[in-house]
Amino acid sequence: MKRWLGFGLLGLLLLTAGGWFARERIALGLYQRGAERAMTANSLESLPDGLHAAFCGTGSPLPDPDRAGPCLAVIAGKRLIIVDAGEGAARNLALMGLPAAGIERVLLTHFHSDHIDGLGALGLQRWVQANAVQPLILQGPVGVGDVAAGFNSAYRIDSGYRTAHHGVSVAPPSGFGFSPRAFALADGPGVILNEGGLKITAVAVDHAPAEPAVAYRFDYKGRCITVSGDTAQSAALEALAEECDLLVHEALQPRLTRMLGTAAGRAGNAGLAKIMVDIEDYHTAPELAAESAAKARVKALALTHIVPPLRLAGLESAFLGDAHMRFDGELWIAADRELVSLPAGGGMTRSMLGGTR
Ligand SMILES: [Zn+2]
Ligand SMILES: [Zn+2]
After folding, report:
1. Would residue 151 count as lying in a domain?
2. Over the stretch 251-289, which tens digit does the pLDDT of each residue have?
């Protein structure tokens, strides 16, 4: 009996060990296939001709494990243009199969830290992946030169290591960093790029004391996307977005941020309590973003730059309030790695790019 028990235990042990070996073999096989896919992944190739919005960050400075800092990739045909690069933007782009090597330029809406704190990683990825011989274009209102110079300075020592380690063919010194392209703001909207069928128009919005702050409109093959940047409800934005297919608008729900402010005050953190009140006046409540979408007669409204983070099921409807009553078109809270496609021939589809791991 004892001997059988011994064999039984040994068998169980061998079976378990065999199971673990099999698991490892399967995992390694999958990893091998995944590595090949990851090295060649390029979502751009499978997109139809048209205009697309890929959300590479829908969060804000408040910590949110599900949302990177503000970032939107606008794809016109095969051209990849990034609007703002908050923390985590480069990682999301990679997960979405949008290789940094393909980035044509980065546009900044304004210079708040949460819109630029992912630039360092993004610039480095693009330089090394593309073996770029020209710096990445960083376009924005006046002030963008200071931002470019700052990142170039902060990453210069690192860039020397990269070239020394991987060679000039992988990391050519001439392609390191950002090349700033500042535009002056006119009284009304101004066209900042018009080539290859893509037109980008900028207009000043209301994000005081953060000035300048701009919104961008992209027109390509009869399709249109307008990106609000950070702003209080803005008539200039509504005019810019007129009859666009998609308005990507920032959103902050004061009902929720006030609860955070009150809690901070009760906890003795008067500074944080004040910040939670201050931020109300230069952002837009979802209900007001919906009103703007209706005034601009856009077809769809995607909310982004979500403040505060929505960590509980059920909070999404509290966040939206009665926004759905104020706008007839499609309205939703955008998610990281979501893709909105506007094919040149018409229509709109929403999907997710990349897996969750
Ligand atoms: Zn801002
Ligand atoms: Zn912001």
Report:
1. no
2. 999 999 999 999 999 999 999 999 998 898 899 999 999
Q: Quick check: is 16 in a domain?
A: no
Whether 114 is catalytic: yes
Which-ligand-closest: CA of 84?
2
pLDDT, one tens digit per residue, over 325-342 is 999 999 999 999 999 999
Structural domain harbouring 310? 45-105+184-352
Ligand closest to the CA atom of residue 211? 1
Does a structural domain hold residue 131? no
Residue 97, domain CATH: 3.60.15.10
Q: Name the catalytic one among 64, 114, 219, 230.
A: 114
Helix (H) or strand (E) holding 319: helix 315-320
Pairwise CA distance, residues 221 & 234, whole Å: 27
Instruction: Tell me if the pTM is above 0.85.
Output: yes
Report the domain count for the chain.
1
Query: Is residue 262 one of the residues assigned to a domain?
Result: yes
Q: State in Å: Cα 230 to ligand 1 middle.
A: 5
CA distance 348 to 345: 10
Q: How far is the CA of 354 from the centre of ligand 1 (A)?
A: 28
